[in-house]
């Protein structure tokens, strides 16, 4: 289905090519496996940032609880991997062999009922999408149908993040508690820990990320994308144009939740464990900062934001661990005060015009100038 | 025609409508009826409850008691978007258009198709939509601004755009809240011309302070005062009503 004549405009196409070149070619060729695996970890947050662009950037719905959906997706994946790692053979020293080690430590003697379906990979893949999707649907319906929005909604999502963390930590026997689910080994018998597996998983993740970019871009270009923008500005006008504003908000929130969950599942695979420290308030806010730094109105901007902020986090906390949180706070203040559209805004204001000028002058030199000024270029 | 023999059906029948905000009755036991193809103007001093009446009809405010029947359907039980879908359009006092979208996109969103989540995902900008948008854009004097972002329009042009967004919905009842407020003299004349053209084949409910404008367009005038009807009838009758002169027109 073609809505506009082109799926990407010129600057978006350049963004797409640049990102694809970096992720598919440049990074795999230049980084060692350890660093590449770190990039894979950063990219799991790019999924969350992508969802936030739709939900927050376009729809104006600020969710400070994306860690919840990241966590739900991650835990679904980790439960499958943990069950596979807890075969009777691997766990024969336990008092109850064949159940995850943390259950055994907590005197649980049989696998709980809700764990049973996670023996199946097919079920797990559906669960990664459906569990967070349905959870977002319930929260979204409860909030948006009652016209709860803005800061109230943000605070409630934050509370949900806090509640889920407490629940996971408290139910140690069922969830692995504060330590999370560690020692994940194989996926259908294929070891996910060695270097070659890490490289394959990296590429799987990048392919998935581009699939999600495609979906997000498709949504952005449909009328639904424009309704999201319209809703952010004049909610009442949308309502009195005959639309149910709540349904559109629920849709945007659910899409953001599903993207975050895919990121979480890839986190469990690439990093090899899942813990409540990726679910709570602080990681949820960090995810919003990645999106804000990259540019909440730009799909590619937000992805760069997730990669660059996480890269800065790794390098800074390697050398000055105490300073990182201050740095992050300062970064957020800078974004809000100085460049509200993030890196992509800076790019669009300062870099893009120069590129356009270059193209325009080249075209003029080559004698192609048919009096049409390149889109966005200053008419000089 | 058969219909001519039937008892007259009102398009809009408001009866016993009351809304109270913390005990203050902004609209108090209000009843009035609007016929098909009638232009009704509501006038009254500030705080008389004019805008509240429109809010109640379009569902923005919920009535405390009373009923609003539109073509026999009870509006007080419906949600805003359902009321729009039964054929009631509302223009707000301050221009509310989507400033981050172009004039074309503003009008396209109001086109009555694909109003569900799935419908808007599969919505296609086909020839029918383009033709209708261009037709309306020409009516509202914005034909050469289709690709302009709405935040670059003047105040008057935004008002026209919002009127255009209602036109494209093709409502049976059009409600306009002070459509010429804040406009220049020339914009005012153009708006009067525009309104005279678009009010054909539909009923219109207008709130307006500009008496000359009211006289130009009104079939019937309802004067509100403290949430109740003070007087109702033709402009001529209302103008000579001593009660109206005292509270409103006198000063």
From TrEMBL, chain A:
Keywords: Cell membrane, Membrane, Transmembrane, Transmembrane helix
InterPro entries given in the database record: ABC_transp_permease (IPR001851), ABC_transptr_urea_perm_UrtC (IPR017778), LivM-like (IPR043428)
Membrane topology: Multi-pass membrane protein
Subcellular location, principal: membrane
Domain of life: Bacteria
Regions crossing the membrane: 12-30, 42-61, 121-144, 151-174, 199-219, 240-267, 287-311, 323-343
PANTHER family linked: HIGH-AFFINITY BRANCHED-CHAIN AMINO ACID TRANSPORT SYSTEM PERMEASE, SLR1201 PROTEIN
Protein name: Urea ABC transporter permease subunit UrtC
Gene: urtC
From TrEMBL, chain B:
One GO cellular component term: plasma membrane
Record has Zinc-finger as a keyword: no
Protein name: Branched-chain amino acid ABC transporter ATP-binding protein
Entry keywords, A to Z: ATP-binding, Nucleotide-binding, Transport
Domain ABC transporter: 12-251
SUPFAM superfamilies (UniProt xref): P-loop containing nucleoside triphosphate hydrolases
GO molecular function: ATP binding; ATP hydrolysis activity
